[in-house]
Amino acid sequence: MNENVLKHNGVLGMKWGVRRYQNKDGSLTPVGQKRYDRDQREVTDKPKKADPNRWLREDTERSKKTVDAVSGLVSKGKELTRDFTTPKKKKLDLSKLTEQELREKINRTMLERQYNDIFAPTEKASKGQKYVTQILEGVGATLAITSSALGIALAIRELRG
């Protein structure tokens, strides 16, 4: 058997024998009750004509929510990497320093900068940080394409009527 094949049957994270909309005693969960009430309303409102696009519409709404949630996570991840890459500088209270101490601190800082410019490696990001950034950029691009394709498909469906 090919080991590079990923198969999944069912709902991710579900346990065997556990129902999504029903408790063990047979009563409905709040989500199950909401779904049951909706189905009953549809049956009593339009007994002869069911909406064939209802499941499609619900799937598209779920897809939109998923895309929005994941794109929000990607932007949060980029913000976090930005926060970790920018060093935070401490503010000194200059009124408590003498002129000599201030000159010494400035000279020390200038020497450190010169040393880093000459001898420090040009790449400041670690391998892990580069890898995470690369993944986030790839996921962001994929989400952008997916969401635009989803928007186009929804617009076409609405135009068709």
Which key phrases capture this entry?
161 residues; mainly alpha; 4 helices; 64% helix; elongated
Would you kindly provide a written description of the structure presented here, covering whatever features stand out?
The chain is mainly alpha-helical. The protein folds into two domains: 40 residues, no CATH class; 100 residues. Helix content is 64%, strand content 0%. The protein contains four helices and no strands. The longest helix is centred in the C-terminal third of the chain and has 34 residues. It is elongated. The mean pLDDT is 78.
Quick gist of this model?
It is built from four helices and no strands. It has about 160 residues and is mainly alpha-helical.
Please compute the radius of gyration using only Cα atoms. Answer: 29 Å
Give the averaged pLDDT, no decimals.
78
Helix residue percentage: 55-70%
Q: Count of DSSP helices?
A: 4
Element-by-element helix/strand order: HHHH
What's the structural domain tally?
2
Largest sheet: none
Global morphology: elongated
Distance between the termini: 46 Å
Strand-residue fraction?
under 5%
> Residue ranges: pLDDT <50 for 5 or more in a row?
none
Strand-pairing-aware structural class: mainly alpha
Q: What is the count of β-strands?
A: 0
Outline the secondary-structure elements.
Blueprint: H1 30-45, H2 54-85, H3 99-119, H4 127-160
Helix pairs in contact: 2-4
